[in-house]
Design goal:
Number of strands: 0
Radius of gyration: 21 Å
Structural class: mainly alpha
Order of helices and strands: HHHHHHHHHHH
Number of helices: 11
Largest sheet: none
Distance between the termini: 66 Å
Shape: elongated
Length: 182
């Protein structure tokens, strides 16, 4: 086999190396998430959640989406723990120059069945990682069930309408403002 043919066969496999080198989620990941989700009022479960947080926040970027999904059926206190763990993971991964799953985050963000709060957080993460991609998503939020995301689309239309007024394009401004009010 000549080296050219060998390289042609090897090239597709080279793309697998980064995926193979990433650490898988810890075997007790779900147990730690459950400990965080069990946090209750007046400090109930905080000690267990703190220990779980330490374990989860040491995970790599692969943990971001499962943690976002865990926010769906979590209480406010648990969501704070989960959000903090995600922030620690993201900051560490970015500081180390590692990539984050932007396409997966965008897919999560566009899935209206997910928690509105988790979707907003996913949008904030995409904005941090790829501002242009996040900006391109905003107009599509105009009829989104999440008021948090819809608010961004309405604000964009209001800015556009003001710009049209400054250009003395009042008919377009009226149309734009009406669209924002719908």
């Amino acid at each position: 086999m000549n080296s050219r043919h060998f390289l042609r066969l090897l090239a597709p496999l080279m793309g697998l190396i980064p995926a193979l080198s990433q650490a898988a989620l810890p075997s007790d990941f779900d147990k730690h998430v459950a400990a965080i989700r069990a946090v209750g009022p007046e400090g109930a479960g905080n000690e267990e959640a703190a220990a779980a947080f330490q374990q989860i926040s040491g995970s790599d970027a692969e943990a971001v989406l499962p943690l976002l999904r865990a926010m769906e059926s979590s209480g406010a206190l648990s969501r704070n723990w989960l959000r903090s763990a995600i922030e620690v993971i993201v900051q560490r991964e970015l500081k180390a120059g590692k990539s984050l799953p932007v396409d997966d985050l965008k897919a999560f963000l566009l899935d209206t069945k997910q928690s509105p709060e988790a979707r907003r957080f996913a949008f904030d993460l995409v904005s941090k990682i790829d501002p242009a991609a996040a900006e391109a998503l905003v107009p599509g939020f105009l009829n989104d069930p999440s008021t948090e995301l819809r608010r961004d689309a309405v604000a964009l239309l209001i800015t556009e309408g003001k710009s049209q007024i400054e250009k003395a394009d009042n008919p377009s401004a009226i149309t734009t403002f009406r669209k924002a009010l719908d």
